[in-house]
Every structure is written in structure tokens, then in C-alpha cells.
Design a protein that fits this description.
This protein has two domains: 90 residues, P-loop containing nucleotide triphosphate hydrolases (Rossmann fold, 3-Layer(aba) Sandwich); 102 residues, Ribosomal Protein S5, domain 2. It is 28% helix and 30% strand. The protein contains five helices and eight strands. The chain starts with a helix and ends with a helix.
């Protein structure tokens, strides 16, 4: 072990002993690397009782609280909060934050589709937005969807549905900063692309 790892381990162990003796909970705040892992020595994760990640877009007031370790319960729960003047407040209807309302009264919602996804034990309605710009060499910009998964869906639409997407720039976005990880959102991604391409 390096000297830095030893220092982190000893300091965290001292805080753990204090918490157990005094029955006072202690919160340690840290930051993550670009790959999403906790920065610094991983020994810290092994000592603490729970590891929680706060996720969300920079310009959004909504935050998702996700457990990746919990000695006392399940990690299949997701907390949804909104930052207000009074601090973080629980969002009672999380699906509302994942659906945009800009064109809710429109007869034609080209480029929009709604996916029903599971995150832990919770079900959310999530809006997928697509924009196809013709006349450009094929390029792809995705937010909230794995690039490889988006490529696969686009390839299927080109080969099986006959969509002429090779000369289009394609932009895909998942509303609310949620990451679309499961395959249940694939149909909504395809539907958003198809509806945008038709119009």
C-alpha cells in the first residue's frame, strides 16, 4: 500500500470507531473520476457502511441518489430529489421530471417517444428525443444512451426499416439526465428516430 492509502485507511478507521462509540452517523463526501469510480484509494469503500452516488445534469435542479453499497439494506432503490430554497426535496412523481412539456398540446410530436424503464425497484416514464439533420455526413451525438447501443439501433433502422440515415447527422437525448441502460428503451429510441425522420 502507498502512504496515501495508509493515511486514508487510518483516518477513515478512526472516524468509524468514533461513530460506533458515540452512535453519531458520519458522512464523508468525495468525488468520482471520469469513469464514474470513487477517486482515490478503493480501501475507503470497504470500510464504510454505504456508498451513495448523487447524479444529475449540471443545469438541472433534479438529483438522483443511488446506492452502490449498503450493508443494511438493498441497493436497488433510487431516490429522486429536487434542489429548492429549502434544500433537497423529495420528488413525489419522478416520471414528471423525465418528460418534457414543451409540446404537450401539439398534434404531431415528431422526434419524441416515451419509454417505460426500470431502475432498481422503481418504474419511470422517460422521454427520448431524436433530431435528424439531412445533408450532413453521417455523425451521431448521444446523451444518456450508450453510443454502441445507439449505433446498433441505427444500423437496424437502416438495414431492416430502409431509413436513409447515412447522410444525416443524428442527435439523441434522454430527458432528465437519466442513463438508459436497459434494452426496454430500444423501441422508444427507434420510434423517436423514425418519427423525426418521417417529418
Amino acid at each position: 500500500m502507498s502512504a496515501a492509502t495508509d493515511i486514508v485507511k487510518e483516518c477513515t478507521s478512526a472516524l468509524l470507531r468514533f461513530a460506533k462509540e458515540s452512535n453519531i452517523p458520519i458522512l464523508l463526501a468525495g468525488h468520482v473520476t471520469k469513469s464514474g469510480d470513487i477517486a482515490g484509494p478503493r480501501v475507503l469503500e470497504h470500510i464504510v457502511d454505504a456508498v451513495l452516488y448523487m447524479e444529475g445534469e449540471k443545469c438541472s435542479s433534479y438529483r438522483l441518489l443511488r446506492a452502490v453499497k449498503n450493508r443494511f439494506g438493498s441497493i436497488d432503490e433510487l431516490g429522486v430529489f429536487e434542489m429548492s430554497q429549502l434544500g433537497l426535496q423529495v420528488v413525489s412523481n419522478p416520471s414528471q421530471m423525465f418528460l418534457s412539456e414543451q409540446h404537450s398540446d401539439s398534434d404531431v410530436l415528431a422526434g419524441l417517444a416515451v419509454a417505460v424503464i426500470m431502475d432498481g425497484t422503481r418504474t419511470f416514464l422517460t422521454e427520448i428525443q431524436a433530431l435528424c439533420v439531412s445533408g450532413y455526413r453521417f455523425s451521431r451525438h448521444v446523451n444518456g444512451i450508450k453510443a454502441s447501443r445507439a449505433d446498433m439501433i441505427i444500423a437496424v433502422l437502416i438495414e431492416q426499416a430502409g431509413l436513409e440515415l447515412r447522410e444525416n447527422a443524428l442527435f439523441l437525448n434522454v430527458v432528465g439526465g437519466v442513463a438508459l441502460k436497459e434494452t426496454s428503451g430500444d423501441l422508444a429510441v427507434a420510434a423517436a428516430i423514425c418519427s423525426r425522420h418521417v417529418f
